[in-house]
Amino acid sequence: MADDDFTxxxxxxxxxxxxxxxxxxxxxxxxxRAGKRVLQVDPNTYYGSDSGAFSVDELETWATTxxxxxPFSHATVERMIEIARPRSYTLTLAPHLxxxxxxxxxxxxxxxxxxxFSWQAVGSWWVYLTEEDVAARSEAGGGIGGALVDIGVKTxxxxxxxxxxxxxxxxxxxAASVDLSGMPELQPAGSTPTLRKLGGVLREVPxxxxxxxxxxxxxxxxxxYLGGFLRFVTKCSDPTDTKHYTLLKEHADTSLAEFLSTxxxxxxxxxxxxxxxxxxxxxxxxxxxxxAVKALTTHMNSTGRIPDIRSAAALxxxxxxxxxxxxxxxxxxxxxGGINVLACGVESLTSGDDSKILAKLTTRQTVTADWVLNxxxxxxxxxxxxxxxxxxxxxxxxxPSLFAKKFQDDRVSPNAVVLTFxxxxxxxxxxxxxxxxxxxxxxxxxxxxxxxxxxxxxxxTAHLQPSGYELSSLALSRALQAVGEEGAQVAFACNYTQSxxxxxxxxxxxxxxxxxxxxxxxxxxxxxxxxxxxxRVYRRIVGEECLHGFLEMTEEMRRQHMLAEGExxxxx
Amino acid sequence: xxxxxxxxxxxxxIGPSNSGKTALLLRYVDDIFDMDTATATIGVxxxxxxxxxxxxxxxxxxxxxxxxxxxxxxxxxxxxxAQGCILVYDVSNRESFLSMDHWFGECAKYAEPGIVTYxxxxxxxxxxxxxxxxxxxxLAERYGAGFVEVSSKTRENVRxxxxxxxxxxxxxxxxxDPKLTRKRRENAVALDHGVDDDTAGASCVC
Lengths: 572, 206
Known about the structure:
The structure holds 2 protein chains of 2 kinds.
Chain A: E1 12-18, H1 22-33, E2 38-42, E3 53-54, H2 56-65, E4 72-79, E5 91-92, E6 98-99, H3 103-110, E7 119-128, H4 131-135, H5 143-157, E8 163-165, E9 177-179, E10 197-198, E11 202-204, H6 209-214, H7 220-235, H8 242-251, H9 256-262, H10 268-278, H11 289-302, E12 314-317, H12 322-335, E13 339-342, E14 346-351, E15 357-361, E16 366-375, E17 385-395, E18 416-421, E19 438-444, E20 455-461, H13 467-483, E21 490-501, E22 514-517, H14 528-542, H15 555-571
Parallel strand pairs in A: 1-2, 1-16, 2-13, 7-18, 16-22
Antiparallel strand pairs in A: 3-5, 4-21, 6-12, 7-11, 7-12, 8-9, 10-11, 14-15, 15-16, 17-20, 17-21, 18-19, 19-20
Chain B: E1 8-14, H1 21-30, H2 37-41, E2 46-53, E3 56-63, E4 84-90, H3 94-98, H4 100-110, E5 116-122, H5 133-142, E6 146-149, H6 159-171, H7 173-176, H8 179-187, H9 197-200
Parallel strand pairs in B: 1-3, 1-4, 4-5, 5-6
Antiparallel strand pairs in B: 2-3
Protein name (chain A): Rab proteins geranylgeranyltransferase
GO cellular component, one term (chain A): cytosol
InterPro entries (chain A): FAD/NAD-bd_sf (IPR036188), GDP_dissociation_inhibitor (IPR018203)
């Protein structure tokens, strides 16, 4: 009866879920709601596993001890200045962006769970490019063809639409067609959307046709090719669009850099800015076109679709991004009758009678379960892994210019932005240039992750530590300089290294009752595949014939909700 | 959830297992007393109650722990944007009273600063009192919380904690519209308005 009576209410469970990360938590909630008796355990003392969120004090403890058997290593932590309320932060290991077109939003809408979260908009993407970067153009840029496209874009800017074939100045490759007929109607002059610039070096990335048409950095021939490329991205997945579909097929394994310097010949600085929209860790030279197109398609399918903020393409979940998902879903499992136990790991799993699994818990209890969901932290022995250098920085300024509204008619301001430092744009004191882009995801205090008048910057780069950390800090100080806030300081910094499997294996579908879930992908945006994997596992456990939809409320919950809401109607 | 025609007040119940949180909630909201309240926790984690204070209507959202307190695994997300927190112990169980420091600590750690707290000693209908009224009062004073002893079984004082918490919240303008919460709410992106809904869910075509 005492509150520290930690005896489990039962030793027999339908499903034992190990871990409280995104996938285990989602499955715990979905399976509980489907009527399964779910026991969810986590050896850590906090929710979220690899996607946890912490106060400053907790993050310091986490970084100095690092959970065993985790993908984390080389953590460093430093308080530069005194932090007044170290417990009031929610610093996350998983500040994922959620694209408007993602299947996560689709799912949460279906199961009426969107209001369990506070959604903040991710505003513009900014890319760090100096005047010299923009001035550096490839030699190919001259010639007759360029001049022809020039005329074409000028026509567009005058308000008309044009269909024009590019000339032969991209010699050697098949001529790419520049087709601007799909351009949305351009805004009349006067309310022309301009791409903003901060400190002369952080440039807003053009991601719509309007942006392309009006970018001050682009020459008119670039506009034609960039417009053509954006059109290619929107069309190339459609098999009936033979031209673009074939073009993608032929070049799927070509690097984005090569494709964009030959088929749609664009200057390097534009390639860097297009690449930043992919959020991919690899440099444009090492990014395959198929991967870039997939990421860009997601981006473009989302751009301009958010009613509250047309200038945005993605959202972020307040209070820690995916860490908050873990908490809400774990609680969802409890609400539906499941049990969450922290500081409790699984010591051993053995086969018992009746094909049940016997699980010995670190709390010295033994439970049985029909199914066990495990998370593999360590990349599979056969698969290869790669690592990212990550950083979490608290800044003593709210950096208002970063979070300013782009369009007057946007109802809300963005509370997150993405800054990209392209490959080669940074150099360490030892003379080492970054061999991969450095991304900064900046969160304002409206995300609830820091105090008023502060913001949190999350960095990520494939450049390995120790120089990866140095480059991240360098990117950070360049960003602060560019944003030009007097007295903006780094109050706290934490750097760590996280390893990921290179390719998500399909082998979650192990045959036995012990199912190993893949770790979350390294993507900076919430990975659509995470939900697909959970749905596959769910179907396997509840059976194909089960009519109960994934994560849908049970009849009893629905009835209770009606009662709760009905009370209100009655009083009305 | 329902459209917000009147101001919503979010109040949490916390405290150890079996301290009588759900019984108090159900007695207050539905005027029922069920010996087997554990089952009542399953399925829904909140209750809605409309109240009128000085002629003005408010919508109370009362959140229950969903049993997560049992292993002290309440998610910090539970505390988000709550304006009031009712901490419940069982007067016939000394240990439940001794754990109150832990629960006040949790509340201070995860809730917004300035949250209204209220300490409730429950089950006064039971024999074998293990915590004196004065002890409860002293603890509440130490944390600047309100205090009352109740019996959900006999209905004694069950309305008091809710009424007083609501009063104190309404008297505190920052709580009714905390600056930060307001900013957060105004800046939050609405996901559910109609216009784009049919198309918005369309997934990536590749």
